[in-house]
Each structure stands twice: as structure tokens, then as C-alpha cells.
Amino acid sequence: MKVDSLFILLADDDEDDCIFFRDALQEIRAKTDLTIVNDGSQLMQYLDNADNRVPDLVFLDLNMPVLNGINCLVEIRKKSRLKELAIAIYSTSSSDENVEEAFINGANIYIQKPNDFSVLKVILEHVITLNLQYNTSGLKKENFLLNINNIKSDEVSKT
Amino acid sequence: MKFLKPRLPGFVLASALVISIFTLLFAAGISYKQLQMASESEKMVVNSYRISVALQQLDLDTRNAETNQRGYLLTNDSSFLQSYFEAIQKVNQSTSQLDSLMSDNYQQSRLLDTLTSSVAKRINYLNEVLRLNNYKVTSTDTIKSLILKGRELMNISQTYIYDIKNDELKLLKRSEMLHENDIKLPPFLILFIVLFSLFVFIISFYKINSDLKDLAITNNQLLINNELFEHSEQIADISHWYLNIKENELTYSNNLYRLLGCKAGEFEPTFLNFLEFVHPDDRALVVEGNRKILDESLEAQMYYRIIRKDGVERHFRSMGKVISDTFGNKFSIGINADITEQHSKDKLIEEKIADLERSNKQLKTFNHIASHDLQEPVRKVQTFISRISDKELEVIPENVRDYITGIGKAAGRMQKFIEDMLLYSKTSMSDKVYETADLNEILENSKRDLSQLIEEKNVIFNTTSLPTVNAIPFQIQQLFNNLISNAIKYSRQDIVPIITIDSKLALGKDIPNTRDNTEKIYYEISFSDNGIGFEQRYAEKIFDLFFRLHTNSEYSGTGIGLSICKVIVENHRGYIKAESLSKYGSTFSIYLPA
Question: Which end of chain B has less neighbouring CB within 10 Å, N or C?
């Protein structure tokens, strides 16, 4: 187990998306460890097990069978041990209802799954470099939903 | 209806009667007393005159006796003696008469006693002189002295008579004076009393008459109102009942019988008889409602079914309460209304609402599916294509590369459709929260959102200052974005696109093809371009959902954008109009209430 690498946990039931995610993560510069769980209950089991390493960042899909993303989010925020866990919602939908619900229940950022692999890489690179420690006071609704245009202009200015 | 004010109607008349009775009794008493006093005075006067006459008679008789005695003494003629005795008898008569006349006056009767005794003394002297003369034993001197003594006594009794007469005269004068005082007032008083009584009687008569008239008017009004009431009940399918609680007397309005399918008065109005008509399942409810009204004096309302005489089931609504009338009698009153029509309408509305809720729920489900499940495969197709690197594309056959490009474009269009449809349904269904929105600010936001496109096409804007309106800001933003991006999209290749945004005020009646004919003021914001325009006959159709004027190869689109614009202005109770000359640009005007 590499201690200096970032430990990322992905909860997503869609195999294709898991592959895209894993591949994109491998192609970016940052060193990361990825663990994938395929539904909400697996995620909770993993997090509830005290022997497991607490992830630095959780990517949480909303549309999952049995225990969906919002249910997981609510459960996680109830546990004092996981209160400060950084959680990024990672969903196909960007509907107002979903964004609103995720925000209210204490997610740190909301990412809409992009339809372009290169955009996915840009997003992951951006999110990982953000210090997403859950902090209620710093949370703003305006930049909660990640806007790809903003990242792109950031990337452009960096290069 | 104007009711007479409640009052004690008998009070005025009763007081008039009491006043009249007392006045008349008073008048009668006064008159009786006056008459009694008058008769007493008269009696006194008569008595006085009698006494006076009797005194004179006594004086006369005494002198007569003396004259005859002297005549006898001088002549010795026995006829004188005869007359003398007659006169003495008369004196006695007069004395007894006087005695009876003056018996009621103590002072006078004492005076009379003195007079009588002096008269008796004198008679004694007369008799003594006669006796002495008969026996002829006495000297003339003795007789002379006796006669002198008699004259002296005569003078004394004369004085007594004078005294009594004087006294009597005084009494008479006093009584006359009193009498006069008594009698002076009564005629005036009696006249006054009679006039007063007459006045009271006339007033009472007038009062009774006017009360009777009022009563007749009220009765008449009541009759009209009853008719109106009954008529209203028939038209409105309502009816009423009232129960005199003390007498346990129930009254039904005619229409109550009719609502139950009966003729007016067909059965005896009792609660139990009414209960017969109530649907068996609802009887307990009606009994409980009735108990609440009667036992707890609560206002109650109940809904129940009745079965009419002809067997038809109807829905009733009843309301009842307890009231007290002006005499303090308690009544329970109530209204029974046949609400069958309303009930069926309500049921229909309920069903429609349920339908609407169901379809809203379905729409929400659709939205969920569209934003998750429908987007997911499309997104994956695009992602897979994006994973084919440029290097990989170079080594595959050209026709395969074209297929892949085609797949990518189709997936892109699919995604655009889904996004637009979601936007459309969101615009139609979102909560309407109005805020103050500065349209200048919104225009600037649009320019920023579309900056890439604007720079690409070198679009020139001509804008004036825009107003601040009360609106749903994000929707107005969407509206501006759609109109501006449309103007850029349908620009002509050969000239620089110019978009002119203008603002002015317009009256509702001046907006073409609308139902608003009022003086209501609107902001008219127009977006004019120098683009390809469209044929004017499509000016209405272009706002229809999915309506398109161009093929995808000419201009890509979903046919949803302008539909969203229309929904947005309608959400703001405004209008959107399009005007165009084909090939010379178009103008879209939005009208928002000022």
C-alpha cells in the first residue's frame, strides 16, 4: 500500500463507466489508488469496516440499485467517523432536483458524467487537486455543480 | 325586509288608559264633592232664612200677645183674651220651631235658650198682670210696675232676637263666601279634564290606527317574503325546518317535502319520519348531528344521503343551530340542501385532479428517466467514440471513419434532444417565483454565455436601455439566450450579423392577435436581426413544439427552443410575436406586463 498516493473509492454500478473512470485515472499525472464498489450497500459495508483505510475521496453515483447515492450520502453524514469524508457526486443527471438534494445532504461537489473521455480526464485531474475536505462553512451553492467550461479555461491558463 | 323595531306594543295604550281612568275618577270625585258642598250651602241658607222668619214670627206673636193683653185690660172684652191665648200658643210654636232649626248649632242654641227663657219670663209677666187684674186686688200702681217690667223684658228679648239674627247673618255671609270660592274653580277644571280626556282618547285612537296599519304593511311584506323565500328554495334546491324546543313542535318548509319527493304536508313533520328517508348507512350520522344541535347547542353541518319517495338516492347537506326569539323561546333551525349536482361535479373534479396528479407523477418519472436512463447510453456512445484516438482513426478505412463520425453526430443530436426536452418540461412545470430582474443585466449574462458564438460570427449588437421587470430570472435568462442564439444561428453567411434590441411601452389592445383588449401596459422588448428570416405565414407555427423550417443539413435544431420561449412568456402572462420578411431578417417581440 503506497502511503503517498491518493486513495479514491468509486461507487458505481455501471461497468462501462467504471472502466472509463479507471482508465482516465491511470492516464492523469497524479498518483492514485482506486477501489471500486458496485452498489450502495457494498459502499456502506466497506466504509463501516474499521479495518479498511478511509478513502481520501469518494466518487458516488446517484442511480444505483437498492441503496442509491443519496441514501448513501445521508448514511455517511450520520456517522461521526465519516463526517469529514470528501464526497463527489458522479452522475449522468444534472437535473435541479438531484443537484439540490445532493447539496442539502452534504456532498462536496457535483460532477455530471461527461460524454467525452478527454473531458473526463480534465475533470478528474481538477477534482483531485482540489482539497475537498468537507467543510460546511466553505460550501457554496454557486460552484457546487462543476462547470466544465470553467475548468477548461483554468487548464488553458495553466499551460 | 325592514322589520318594526321590537317594543312593548301595549305600553302606550295601557298608559293612556290609566291616565284617562285616573283623570275621570278625579273629575267625578271633584264634581261629587262640589255638588255636596253646594247642597250643604243651600241647606244652610234655607235654614238661615227659616230661622230669621221664625224669629220675626216669634217677635210678632209676642207683641201680638201683649197688644191683646192690653186690649183686654182696657176693654175687658173677652175676644181680646181669646186672641191673647192664640198668640201665646203661636209663641210656643215658634219657639219649638226655632229650637228644631237651631239644634245643630251649639252657640246659637244657647242664645236661643236665653231668648226662650226671656220670652217665657215676659209671658209670665203678662199672665201675672192678667191674673192680678181678674182678682182686682192689686193696685193700679202694682200693675203699672209689672207692665213696665214687661216692657223692659220685651226690650231684652228684642235684643236677643237681634243678636241671633245678626249671628245668623254672619254665618250665612261666611258660608256664602266659602261657597263662592268653591264653586268658582270647578267648571274650568271639569272643562279642562274633559278636553284632556278627549285628547288622550284621540291620541290613543290614532295610535291604534297607525299600529294596525303598520301591522297590515308588515303582514303584507311577510307574505311577499314568504313567497320569495319559497320560490328561492325551489330554485336553489334548499329547504328549511324549525323546531319549537319547548313545545316540541316541528315545522317543515314546503320545499323540504318536495326535496324528499313528497307533496307539501304529505306526512307529519317529525324527526323520526324524516329519518325514514335517510339512507340506512347515514342514519347514525344524522342522529348524532341532531343530538349535537339540540343537546349541545352547537352549530352542526352534515353530509348524508337520502332516498326519495320515488327511490332515487340524493345527496344532502344540512346545517342547524339553536336560536332564541324575542320572547326567549328556544328554537332549533336548519337548512337542508340537495347537493347532488354539486356532489357529482365535485366528484368529477376530484377524479380530474387525481388524473392530473397521476400524469404529473408520470411526467416526473419521465423526467427522471430522461435525465438518467435515456442520457446514459447516448453519453456512453459518445464516450466510446471519444476514446478512439486520432492515430487509431488514421489507420482505419475511410468509409468506417465516416460511419464513426455519423454515429458521433447522431448521438450528439440525441443528447441535444434530451437536454431540450428536459428544459422544456422544466420550464412548464417549475415553481413560479417572481423576483425583480434587470433586463440589462440579463442581456449581459446572455452575451457572456454565448461569447464563443458571438466572437466566432463577429455579431454586432445595437441595444437601448432595458427596463427592470418582475419576473422569474432564470427563465427570462433562458428566453434571452434562446432568442439571441437563434438570431445568430439563422444569420446570413454573406453579411455581418446585427442584432438590435429595443424596448418601449405598449397597451394590451395594441398587441396584435391577442385576447387582451384592455389598457394594460406592457414592456415590449424586440429582438431584430438581419438574418435569413422566414415566411410570414409561419409566424405562429414556429412556436409549436418540434416544428422546424429547415433540414438538419441546413441548420441543426430540435424545434424546441422557440416553444420554450413561448412557455416562458406565457408563464409571465405575456405574449411573444414574430414578424419577418423572408431573406431580410426577422423580429421577435416579447410583451411582459409592466
Answer: N
| Domain presence at residue A80 | yes
> Is the CATH number of domain B237-338 3.30.450.20?
yes
Give this complex's ipTM.
0.82
Residues of B with CB under 8 A from a CB of A: 367-368, 371-373, 375-376, 378-380, 382-384, 386-387, 411, 415, 422, 426
- Note the pLDDT tens digit of each residue in B352-384: 999 999 988 888 888 878 777 888 899 999 999
Q: How far apart are CA B223 and CA B85, in angstroms?
A: 103
Q: Is A120 on the interface with B (CB under 8 A)?
A: yes
pTM to 2 decimals?
0.55
CA A146 to chain centre: 11
Of residues B479 and B98, more confidently modeled:
B479
**Which architecture, in CATH terms, is B432-593?**
2-Layer Sandwich (3.30)
Residues 6 or more apart whose Cβ sits within 8 Å of residue B479? B564, B565, B568, B569, B590
Residues in A touching B472 (Cβ below 8 Å): none
Give the DSSP H or E segment for B505: strand B498-507
Question: For position A127, which CATH number holds?
Answer: 3.40.50.2300
Task: Give me the torsion for CA of A59, A64, A70, A75, rounded to 10°.
Answer: -80
DSSP letter for A66, please: S
Contact B383 A114 (CB under 8 A): yes
Q: Which of these CATH numbers, 3.30.420.480, 3.40.718.10, 3.30.420.40, 1.20.120.1730, describes B10-189?
A: 1.20.120.1730
Does B375 contact A93 at a Cβ distance shorter than 8 Å?
yes
